[in-house]
Amino acid sequence: RDLHSFPTRRSSDLDDSWEARLLARLEHYRRYPAQARRGHQHGLVVLRLKIDRDGALLAADIVQGCGHAMLDREALATARRARQLPPIPPEKSAPRLVDIPVEFHLR
User: Fold this and answer.
1) Residue 89, pLDDT score
2) What are phi and psi of 3, to 5 degrees?
3) Exposed, middle or buried, 91 (CB in 10 Å: 0-12/13-18/19+)?
4) Predicted confidence band at 55 (pLDDT cuts at 50, 70, 90)?
5) What mean pLDDT do residues 99-107 have?
6) What's the CA gap between 20 and 25, in Å, rounded?
7) What is the percentage of the chain residues whose pLDDT exceeds 90?
8) pLDDT at residue 16 is higher than 90
9) DSSP string, the chain
10) Rounded CA gap, 57 and 52, in Å?
11) What number of CA atoms fall less than 13 Å from residue 106's CA on the CB side?
């Protein structure tokens, strides 16, 4: 099993990669809890996901919380809502463990 970490910001080398598709899929399901927004809570949660060859989410755990339990729970909920992730390309090992940043920031 490989453990892969993603940068907290998208970079040009992730443009059309599996990693970019994975981040985009998770971003689609990320929600900012209204109560956390009203409370001006923000931060970065790092999740460790275990994904099988077909892209099914096998496990999701918090590696690093952001200090706000509501946002930590929402980061996990993001992964669970996404459930089916992009399939892992044949050249990568599977199942795959990946550390994923889930950022909550106020604009």
Assistant:
1) 92
2) -115, 125
3) exposed
4) very high
5) 91
6) 9
7) 79
8) no
9) --EEE--SS--GGGTTSHHHHHHHHHHHH----HHHHHTT--EEEEEEEEE-TT-BEEEEEEEE--S-HHHHHHHHHHHHHH-B-PPPPTTS-SSEEEEEEEEE---
10) 7
11) 11
Strand 96-104, strand 3-5: pairing: parallel
Token representation of residue 62: 């918090």
Do the beta carbons of residue 104 and residue 66 sit within 8 Å?
Answer: yes
Q: Are strands 57-64 and 3-5 parallel, antiparallel or unpaired?
A: unpaired
Q: Tokens 């929402």 label which residue?
A: 74
Within the chain, what is the greatest distance between any pair of CA atoms? 44
